[in-house]
Amino acid sequence: MNDKNFKINLCKDLGSLGDVFIVLLNANSKDYINSVLESLKFITDKGMGGVYLTSARPYGYMTKHFERCDIDTTNLFFIDTISCMAGKSPGEHGKCVFIENPSALEEVGMWVNSLMERIEMKNKILIIDSLSTMQIYNDIGTLTKFSQQLINRLRLRDESGIFTTIDTEIHEGLHNTLASLCDKTIKV
């Protein structure tokens, strides 16, 4: 895929959604990380703030990518569900909350609510990176219910969301449910 066209098409798709949206971003494994980074760059450049939930890569690793891509994280909080499995102590450390593991969905949900309330911007967003990874640690029924609850919370609060998946690694039932609940599915 041409890198320039990839960015243009992704930004065009995101830009067509208006101020409040919920998107299922379904990328192939080759373009996945670039899709996530370009999406985050687009929304922060648009003046949105919110919560970035990572279960795929540790917070410290991702912040290096954000800096390299000139992504402004001033108005973002982070939830990291993977670093504690590699020895990081759980709890809140600066702008990041470290949760013991990706299967602690109730704790994740509570922190999403708490951190979203701290954002002092009108346009708020939740980015989940990635449901494909979270399904490794959770049964599909539980993860589907959790995703539905998050989407409903976002809609009730007039907030946006980007739920990311890797196209070949997402359970078909979870994908179909998410696609039906989201405003748009963007395939990269």
Number of strands: 8
Which superfamily, in CATH terms, is the homologous superfamily?
A: P-loop containing nucleotide triphosphate hydrolases
- Indicate how many domains the architecture comprises: 1
Judging from the principal axes of the Cα atoms, what is the shape? globular
Beta-strand fraction estimate: 15-25%
N-end to C-end Cα span: 9 Å
Q: What is the gyration radius calculated from CA atoms?
A: 15 Å
Name the helicity range.
40-55%
* CATH structural fold name: Rossmann fold
Low-pLDDT runs of 5+ residues are none
Order of helices and strands: HEHEHEEEHEHHEHE
> Order of strands across the widest beta sheet?
4-5-3-2-6-7-1-8
What's the average pLDDT? 92
Alpha-beta classification: alpha/beta
> Helix segment count?
7
Give a short account of the largest sheet: 8 strands, mixed
Looking at the overall shape, the CATH architecture is 3-Layer(aba) Sandwich
CATH first level: Alpha Beta
Question: What does this entry look like structurally?
Answer:
Helices cover 45% and strands 21% of the residues. With 188 residues, it is an alpha/beta fold. It has a single domain (28-187), classed as Rossmann fold (3-Layer(aba) Sandwich), CATH 3.40.50.300. A hairpin with a 2-residue loop joins strand 4 (91-93) and strand 5. Helix 1 (3-15) crosses helix 2 (32-45). The longest helix is centred in the last third of the chain and has 17 residues, at 140-156. The radius of gyration is 15 Å and the shape is globular.
